[in-house]
């Protein structure tokens, strides 16, 4: 298969909770090794869309997906696709830091081990923690509880845990929403670093963060049936300086609602 | 600006007067809660007092035959061999052989034999017993009464709960009876019940919580499990009788494994019956424990590419384990105290042989206690009270062990 520039493509992707359509008709192409931000008002379906990318919605019994989600031209919702494999390729960092109730070391080693990692575990742990800019802070207490870390450190640990299984794409749902400005900036720096090797999709409420950190931005908004959709998807610069849609302009300039 | 009259909340003195009312209500409720606690404490104290009251007190007894008729030495100083000879010489052949059949005489301990000496030869005869309260408050009157009614009797303050009571087997004479057989029976029962119900109950709970789709079928199953926890225990006894004692007799009697001398009324049948009895309790507790594991933890595991099984085994179960253990502690206490199902399944009422495996006949502590309390003679009530103390201590010990185990598993992060 030829190596397209796109890590992931959606084709008229809709997501429903029971009879309620939460996200409707999304068509977007996510470029490789770029950061794509998803912005939009609360409840417009950003998390729902993001979770659809690695089939985390499978755990919501009422949730079902129509349309296509293509990774390397393969529909992730196709019949023969194993969701475990999807999550192996597409890692996720959640809004609230959720380290395992284990040691810092184990937090990273566990994911690697269950995925059959055969290399040197100590090296992997160090390398992942370094990539997540956490190594210097924790190198002397790898065997201590991950819960003893600060919120920002826990979030970086979750990022390190995701990097350790070497996915192709990393999804981040408001990774900095619970963090102070300094931790937020560190995570943004980290994303710039990670971008060299990974494709990143990030949901954020922070307009400055989206403008600063992302290359592309998808603007989501609900229609009159309360179904969310991507109303504009473009270069981040374009979205923030010359948006085509009036609603986008209102939202990014803070005149929304 | 609002004037004070139009403010929606009370101000100044009005505020303090509502505050006083709020505090008053709070004080009333608080004293009600304290009252409830006090009632609970009083009831518990009364229960413990009642038991202890029965287990200690004066006893007046006579010897039918004097020990000196059998031996020149003081009975306590007799060796095992000497006792064996005395018993063999003075007991009838039939009585001696019967005892030998129950447990080979040579393998019995010195204290066991000494017991037999007093029980069968000297023939201690209890005239009357008194409760602890009576003994302590009316000591002089009791002494006068005994001196008058039983001039030959010995009056002694006796603790019915002795080391001997713990180690002696069953006997038809209260003074010599012990609870060893019953304690061992109870331990076997609880062991079998937990070994059966804990894995099955936990497995069912995992399936219900983590795998089963939420539909009408699972909700019916769930409702039934919840109701089963409240079914009277005698019903479980009848189930055990029908299924384990009768239908599965060749298994529960051990016939399948070459055991020939027993029927289905074995410790195995009773243990399995108890296992079924506590199964709903274990399932419900395990379900609650599994439910309490936060979803964010499952998502974290799935998020790094874990399968459902890996998520359950490495994260859900270890985090639910303390709760599951709490459930088994409850189950254990229940199994230890249940009486009715054991009677139905066929606990032996008189058995002096220790259980030596799952296919033994058995008795259990609550059965023994029940037996003794139904006897007319007051000395049996005294040993029933002692057996209750033993049961309570056993319960505390088992629970403490389970809690220790739980705390070991519960590595806090
Ligand atoms: N598990 C669920 N079951 C049913 N409806 C859901 C579920 N999760 C989300 N929804 C609905 O889907 C819609 C989109 O929710 P979603 O969480 O994706 O919004 P969001 O854009 O991430 O909002 P926020 O910015 O507040 O996080 C909402 O109307 C929400 O009520
Ligand atoms: Mg969200």
Question: Can you offer a commentary on this structure?
Answer:
The complex is a heterodimer of chains A (257) and B (413). The N and C termini of chain A lie far apart (46 Å). Chain A has ten helices and eleven strands. Chain A has helices at residues 46-53, 83-89, 104-114, 121-131, 135-138, 151-164, 181-194, 207-213, 236-241, 246-252, and strands spanning 6-17, 20-26, 29-31, 35-39, 63-71, 74-75, 90-93, 169-173, 199-203, 216-222, 228-235. Chain A is an alpha/beta fold and 257 residues long. In chain A, α4 (121-131) packs across α6. The longest helix of chain A is centred in the middle third of the chain and has 14 residues, at 151-164. In chain A, the strands form two sheets. Chain A has a six-stranded mixed beta sheet with strand order 7-8-9-4-10-11, sandwiched between helices. Chain B has 413 residues and is mostly helical. Chain B folds into two domains: 54-159, no CATH class; 181-409, Orthogonal Bundle (MetI-like fold). The chains are: A alpha/beta (257), B mainly alpha (413). At the A-B interface, α2, α3 and α6 of A face α13 and α14 of B. Adenosine-5'-triphosphate (ATP) binds next to α1 of chain A. The site of adenosine-5'-triphosphate (ATP) has 11 residues of chain A, from α1.
Task: Give the names of the bound compounds.
Answer: adenosine-5'-triphosphate, magnesium ion
Helix tally of chain B equals 17
Our estimate of the beta-strand percent of chain A is 25-35%
Question: Looking at the chains present, what oligomeric state does this protein adopt?
Answer: heterodimer
Order of helices and strands of chain B: HEHHHEHHEHHHHHHHHHHH
Could you say what the CATH architecture of the largest domain in chain B is? Answer: Orthogonal Bundle
| Assigned CATH superfamily of the largest domain in chain B | MetI-like
In the CATH scheme, the class of the largest domain in chain B would be Mainly Alpha
């Amino acid at each position: 298969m030829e190596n397209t520039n796109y890590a992931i493509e959606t084709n008229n992707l809709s997501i429903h909770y029971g009879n309620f359509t939460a996200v409707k008709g999304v068509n977007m192409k996510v470029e490789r090794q770029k950061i794509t931000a998803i912005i939009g008002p609360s409840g417009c379906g950003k998390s729902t869309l993001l979770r659809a990318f690695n089939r985390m919605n499978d755990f919501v019994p009422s949730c079902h997906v129509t349309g296509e989600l293509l990774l390397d031209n393969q529909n992730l919702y196709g019949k023969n696709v194993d969701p475990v494999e999807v999550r192996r390729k597409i890692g996720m960092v959640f809004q609230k830091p959720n380290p395992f109730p284990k040691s810092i070391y184990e937090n990273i080693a566990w994911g690697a081990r269950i995925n059959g990692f055969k290399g040197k575990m100590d090296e992997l742990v160090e390398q992942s923690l370094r990539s997540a800019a956490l190594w210097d802070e924790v190198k002397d207490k790898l065997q201590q509880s991950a819960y003893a870390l600060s919120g920002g450190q826990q979030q970086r640990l979750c990022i390190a845990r995701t990097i350790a299984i070497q996915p192709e794409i990393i999804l981040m749902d408001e990774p900095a929403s619970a963090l102070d400005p300094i931790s937020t900036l560190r995570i943004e720096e980290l994303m710039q670093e990670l971008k060299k090797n990974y494709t990143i999709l990030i949901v954020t409420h922070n307009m400055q963060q989206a403008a600063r950190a992302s290359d592309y931005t998808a603007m989501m908004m609900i229609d009159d049936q309360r179904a969310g959709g991507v109303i504009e998807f473009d270069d981040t610069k374009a979205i923030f300086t010359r948006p085509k849609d009036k609603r986008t302009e209102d939202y990014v300039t803070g005149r929304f609602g | 600006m609002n004037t004070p009259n139009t403010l929606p909340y009370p101000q100044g003195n009005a505020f303090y007067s509502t505050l006083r009312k709020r505090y008053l209500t709070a004080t009333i409720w608080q004293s009600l809660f304290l009252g409830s606690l006090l009632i609970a404490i009083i009831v518990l104290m009364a229960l413990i007092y009642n038991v202890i009251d029965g287990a200690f007190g004066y006893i007046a007894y006579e010897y039918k035959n004097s020990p000196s008729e059998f031996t020149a030495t003081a009975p306590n100083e007799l060796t095992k061999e000497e006792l064996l000879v005395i018993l063999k010489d003075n007991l009838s052949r039939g009585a001696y052989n019967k005892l030998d059949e129950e447990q080979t005489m040579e393998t019995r301990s010195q204290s066991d034999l000494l017991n037999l000496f007093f029980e069968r030869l000297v023939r201690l005869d209890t005239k009357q017993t008194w409760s602890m309260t009576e003994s302590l408050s009316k000591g002089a009157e009791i002494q006068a009464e005994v001196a008058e009614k039983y001039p030959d009797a010995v009056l002694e303050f006796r603790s019915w709960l002795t080391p001997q009571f713990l180690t002696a087997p069953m006997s038809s004479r209260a003074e010599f009876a012990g609870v060893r057989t019953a304690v061992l029976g109870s331990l076997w029962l609880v062991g079998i019940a937990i070994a059966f119900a804990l894995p099955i109950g936990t497995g069912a709970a995992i399936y219900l919580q983590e795998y089963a789709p939420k539909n009408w079928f699972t909700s019916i199953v769930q409702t039934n499990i919840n109701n089963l926890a409240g079914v009277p225990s005698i019903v479980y006894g009848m189930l055990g009788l029908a299924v384990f004692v009768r239908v599965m007799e060749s298994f529960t009697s051990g016939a399948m494994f070459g055991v020939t001398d027993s029927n289905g009324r074995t410790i195995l049948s009773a243990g399995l019956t108890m296992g079924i009895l506590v199964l709903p309790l274990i399932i419900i507790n395990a379900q609650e424990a599994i439910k309490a594991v936060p979803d964010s933890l499952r998502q974290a595991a799935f998020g790094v590419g874990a399968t459902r099984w890996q998520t359950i085994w490495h994260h859900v179960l270890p985090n639910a384990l303390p709760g599951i253990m709490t459930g088994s502690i409850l189950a254990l206490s229940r199994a230890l105290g249940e009486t009715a199902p054991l009677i139905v399944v066929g606990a032996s009422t008189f058995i002096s042989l220790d259980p030596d495996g799952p296919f033994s006949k058995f008795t259990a502590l609550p059965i023994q206690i029940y037996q003794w309390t139904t006897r007319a003679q007051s000395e049996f009530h005294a040993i029933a009270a002692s057996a209750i103390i033993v049961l309570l201590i056993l319960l505390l010990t088992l629970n403490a062990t389970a809690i220790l185990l739980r705390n070991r598993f519960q590595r806090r992060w």
